[in-house]
Amino acid sequence: MNQTKGKNNRKVIKAISPHKTKRSGTRKTAVLTFSVPPEMGKMIDDLAKQENRTRSELIREAIRRYIAEEKWAQIYRYAEQKALEKGITEDQIEEIIDAERE
User: Is the overall model pTM greater than 0.85, yes or no?
Assistant: First the structure.
């Protein structure tokens, strides 16, 4: 992963698309480019070093967690909307679940 200084003195983490490359044929991973403030870049590098992981592994884990959190947030928003449509209050939800389990 290449790293250079970009605009506003941010660290730029470069990436390559998952399409064919000259060196390796078809890649199994997508390589992305994004920038972070220098202090965040240092924090990423320090944490990766502490955990004996690569920067990529650390960022992949953070993204996996974010995606999982967002999926649950979508489920909760959907459930909230459906409960509102049916006139169910938050207090009634446990009672409904308990009744269904019996």
Answer: no
